[in-house]
Each structure stands twice: as C-alpha cells, then as structure tokens.
Amino acid sequence: EKAQEMKNALAIQCDVTDEISVAKAFALAVEGHGPVDILVNNAGAAISLPFRKIDKAHFQSMLEVNLMGPFLCIQVVLQEMIDKGAGRIINVASTAALKGYSYVAAYSAAKHGVMGLTRSLALEVAGKGVTVNAVCPGFTETDIARDAIKNIMAKTGRTKEQAIAELVVHNPQKRLIQPAEVAASVLWLCGDNAASITGQAIAVAGGEVMS
C-alpha cells in the first residue's frame, strides 16, 4: 500500500526463505528499475517462547526468515555489485544481535548470525567498492513490537502502557524507537559519506547498547 503511494516504487511480494521466490522477485525488480545498487534486508519475524518450549521447527523458522533470508538476497546481488565496483548492503538486525534477551533464544541466535554474516562479508568485499553493515534497532513501533505488547497484556493482565514499559525497561530513553529513525540510519549508510563505514553494527536503541 505504501509503495503504491510512491511515484517510482515497485512492490513485489516475496518469500525470503524460498530461493526461487527470491530469484523471481529480484528479476522483476531489475526488469522494472535496472541493476540493484542497494540491498536492505528488512524482512524479519520474532516469536517469544521459553527455551524449554522451543522445538526444532520453531528454531528453524527463526533461522530461515532472519538469517537465511538475508543470505539468499545477498547471493543474488553481490556478484553484480562486485563487477560494478560499487554497492551497499544493509542488514536490519536488532539489539538482539548484540545482546541476549529472555524468551527469544531462537530469534537472538538468528540475529547474532546476521552480525557474523555482516562482518565476515564486509571483510571479503572491502576492497571491491561494496560496503556491508547492520542496523540494530531496539524495540521499534512495528507489528513485531505491537504483537509483543498484546502478548504481554494477554499473559499478564497488564495495561498497554505497562506492557510498553516492560519492553523498553532497558532503553535509557524509556520509549519505543520510531521506524523513521531506523530508516534514517539506513539512508545514511547508503550515501557517499558512509563509504568508509563497513562491517559495523549501528545501534538505534536509545543508548540500550553502547560500544
């Protein structure tokens, strides 16, 4: 819906866990707008479960969406970026890629994997004009956070305000991150002035994670 409001945008539905679906989506994107100069891996899913209730299927699903998805998308575009001598790859990870959180072991494991992928690939392509970085938001006002708030309310009987307070308890600013703040960080990494920034984790988290 948002893409339809934008004059030159092209919206393509894709299952990032499926190699064929990813290949078709990028083929349509290239057909409509030409070669891919910037890749932002932003698809993600998070389900809260205590570790004792995590089964293989749940763990695998978190890896498929959050780690395999970026891997498949990068595979499609990387060689052409190298051949051109220019490209930007931004993986939207999470503060869960930089620290642990209770009840999201599978999600956090996958996001830590995204950071490993980001850092290793950044080294491989550092001399080829391609940068690879991760943006790591804290709890952001998106569907994932809204679902988490509803889950807390349903399980504990807390009010919406109390549920939000629980989510942001480790954020010194005590608030949800806004999507526009994450987008601004991504946009900066895409620009010429960020050409020397690669292999980095940019935390957008109100001071929750510092390095």
Rg over CA atoms, rounded to whole Å, is 18 Å
H and E string: HHEHEHEHHHE
Strand order of the largest sheet: 1-2-3-4
Low-confidence stretches: none
As a percent range, the share of strand residues is: 5-15%
Major sheet description: 4 strands, parallel
CATH architecture call of the domain at 37-138 and 177-204:
3-Layer(aba) Sandwich
The backbone outline, from C-alpha atoms, is globular
N- to C-terminal separation?
37 Å
Going by CATH, the homologous superfamily of the domain at 37-138 and 177-204 would be: NAD(P)-binding Rossmann-like Domain
State the secondary-structure class: alpha/beta
Q: Roughly what is the average pLDDT, rounded to an integer?
A: 95
CATH class of the domain at 37-138 and 177-204: Alpha Beta
CATH level 3 topology of the domain at 37-138 and 177-204:
Rossmann fold
Beta-strand segment tally: 4
Number of discrete helical segments: 7
Helix content range: 40-55%
Keywords: Oxidoreductase
Family: Belongs to the short-chain dehydrogenases/reductases (SDR) family.
Protein name: D-beta-hydroxybutyrate dehydrogenase
Pfam families: adh_short_C2
Write the layout of secondary structure elements.
Layout lengths: L1 H4 L13 H15 L4 E4 L14 H29 L2 E6 L12 H20 L5 E8 L5 H14 L3 H8 L11 H12 L10 E4 L7
Helix pairs in contact: 2-3, 3-4, 5-6
